[in-house]
Amino acid sequence: MNIVFDLDGTLIDSAPDIHATANIVLGDEGLGGFDLPTVRGFVGRGVPHLVDSLLGAHGIKDSARAARMADNLIARYEHAVTLTQPYPGVEAALQALQAAGHRLAVCTNKPLAPALAVLRHLELAGYFDVVLGGDSGLPRKPDPAPLSETLRRMPPGPAAYVGDSEVDAATAKAAALPFFLFTEGYRHAPADSLPHRALFSDFAELPGLIRALG
Q1: Assessment of whether the complete model's pTM goes beyond 0.70
Q2: What 3-state DSSP class applies to 68?
Q3: Are strands 159-163 and 2-5 parallel, antiparallel or unpaired?
Q4: Number of domains in the chain
Q5: Of 69, 144, 151, 212, which one is least surrounded by beta carbons within 10 A?
Q6: What range defines the domain where residue 61 resides?
Q7: Which of 44, 77, 110 is the last residue of a domain?
Q8: Nearest-angstrom CA–CA distance, 191 and 169
């Protein structure tokens, strides 16, 4: 089976690095920073959405300024890895899934270079046959196009999607894939309110849930 994962809030808790980087970028603009929960709430829809949300929280709507800030953030993003950690049990679950013959991939709204950088830093990159970033030229999730493209780059066969958020649930639904919802990520809505095949709070549960899918 092809198993595609979201990245931020699913495999890794990257919010501390994103928070620190966002506040540096805001400081470069002479704007005040935000606390971690606020910035975490802006994560998941890609850099343009993050920057627009940061400016919007200051009551600012300025496309030129947003573009400048996005460039600044992306330039810093690739090195923003030191505060990021995989969620407990992630690597063991990836090992178990790979050993069972499943093919693994990542489909994220994070730009590709920082996504690869953090996966390499955490020594997780080798588990994935495909990593597709939010700067692929396709619409970002929840549009199903990037998930479909990820699967196009993998061998034909049944597939499932693993994520943590409303965006991921909508993406899986649009792509007509079974969705496994990790409940400890960056979701806002109650877990039960999102369409899903199964919920899990511990990555040790995931290989068994995939096995039950058949």
Answers
A1: yes
A2: helix
A3: parallel
A4: 2
A5: 212
A6: 15-77
A7: 77
A8: 10
Active site residue 164: no
pLDDT tens readout for residues 19-52: 999 999 999 999 999 999 999 999 888 899 999 9
DSSP 158: -
> Do the Cβ atoms of 85 and 119 come closer than 8 Å?
no
Report yes or no: 90 and 11 within 8 Å, Cβ to Cβ: yes
- Residue 156 CA, chain-centre distance (Å), reads 24
Residues 165, 119 share a domain: yes
List the Cα angle 41/69/117 in 5-degree steps.
Answer: 70
Do 103 and 64 share a structural domain?
A: no
Q: What is the rounded CA–CA span in Å between residue 55 and residue 98?
A: 42
Q: Are strands 103-107 and 130-132 parallel, antiparallel or unpaired?
A: parallel
Distance between CA 8 and CA 110 in Å, rounded? 8
**Domain match, 37 and 141 both:** no
8 DSSP assignment: B
Write out pLDDT tens, residues 69-103.
Answer: 999 999 998 888 999 999 999 999 999 999 999 99
